[in-house]
Amino acid sequence: MEKRFKDLKIITGNSNPELAKEICDYIGIDLAKSDVMTFSDGEIGLSLNESVRGADIFIVQPTSSPVNDNLMELLIMIDAARRASARRITAVLPYYGYARQDRKVKAREPITAKLVANLVVQAGARRVLAMDLHASQIQGFFDVPFDHLLAVPILSDYFKNKDLENTVVVSPDMGGVTRARGLAERLGVPLAIVDKRRPMANVCEIMNLIGEVEGKDIIMIDDIIDTAGTIVGAAEALKEKGARDIYICCTHPVLSGPAIERIQNSCIKEMVTTNTIKLPPEKKTDKIKVLSVAPLFGEAIMRIHEDLSVSKLFD
Asked: Which of 22, 178, 233, 264 falls between 20 and 30 A from 45, CA-CA?
């Protein structure tokens, strides 16, 4: 271990220990020794098996499914590190659960993204590092420094190495235009937008297409693919408009319910995603390519530890 990182410690729970180990390998340190267990009544327990007194602690724990268990593990790990006299605790959230409940759409609804932010800060986190929030304004829900990483550079590097011709980047909805534009600019290709109306949750009706896709290779980008209904519906609409090969990419592969079956049976040629969320064996198929975000998180953690600029990573 490099001497400059002797006070840096990375802890992980059960959500994505493989990603935490990859980050440690990139930095050149060992994963801190800890045990997260579940008692017979469902309560979560934690044991930190080495001293963290005076250390700069980074807790890597995406709050993906099972969301409530992983969130509770995160809060318990933060509390344990705080009570063990850690110098600073950074919550590293490759995927931020409850991010889609970021505002009141109708009366008497909670704003759960803000509630989770309050819990993380009150538990003792003094900094947060996350990737591709569903709504970037969630950064403002935290009263501590927040570093927001983007997966677009990782995704764009992958597609630059593919032999695609006459490529168009497509946003599957109006809300994702900024993200799609960022990918299009990095690839130097045009942008198109699928304009849709959603009558109810996880149900999508295609209304219009802004841009030209006939005879083009398509790269459709979103932050999250959950049930895959929206993205598959958009892909089928693009195919009807004359699109050639259709690729989809996202940062967070939630892939719940019928998502895998829908993607496998669709006209989509390949789905490219990252390992912010651990994919179980039943969700790994030949159509899905997983890219690692560990080097980017590793660089960000080293920069935070040494009080250097994180934004320089995207220059």
From this structure: 22
| Local structure of 91: helix, strand or coil | strand
User: What pLDDT digit, counting tens, does each position of 236-284 carry?
Assistant: 989 999 999 999 999 999 999 999 999 999 999 999 999 999 999 999 9
Long-range contacts of 41-48 (CB under 8 A, 24+ apart): 44/69, 44/72, 44/73, 44/76, 45/76, 46/73, 46/76, 46/77, 46/80, 48/11, 48/80, 48/81, 48/84
Pairing mode, strands 44-48 and 34-38: antiparallel
State whether residue 24 is helix, strand or coil. Answer: helix
Whether this prediction's pTM lies above 0.90 is answered by yes
Residue with tokens 């800890």: 34
114 catalytic? Reply is no
> Which of 9, 104, 196, 284 is flagged as catalytic?
196
Tokens representing residue 188 in the block: 């130097």
DSSP β-ladder status, 146-149 and 167-171: unpaired
